[in-house]
Amino acid sequence: MKTILIALDPSIFSYGLRQIIATMPQATRIETADTLDAAMTLLDTQGFDLFITDLHPEIFGPVREKCPGIRVMIYTAADEKTFAIDYLLAGADGYLSKSAKKEEMEYAVKTVLNGEKYMSAMVRQEMLDQLWQKRRADRKGMGIY
After folding, report:
1. What pTM did the predictor assign?
2. Class (C level, CATH) for 2-119
3. Mean pLDDT value across residues 59-68
């Protein structure tokens, strides 16, 4: 059985997300926390496979210290194009917009629980575009193009 800790603001998102995850075929135990302090207390006393939050990337280190091997997924209303890549590079295992549909949320949770990274198609394309631009600039500087 997989264990998931959800710490979202406002808590209505935790409730909705909990309901979606509960309908998924994979057996899960779900805990919720309304604040970072409450989440950290739960991490001190219980082991979790996945931490879903809209909090800032500076918590990744402390969360992983308390619960080594935990996967972290950001679920936020912040603009994907602006923030997703930075969060993923900072250590998030997944990034999902709160505007995502139920099916995408289920897929994202399943993907991250299976040890893979998750990002939307738009974010994946943005990362590829940035990589392509960097590679072209590097090669141009070397006189290849």
Report:
1. 0.88
2. alpha beta
3. 89
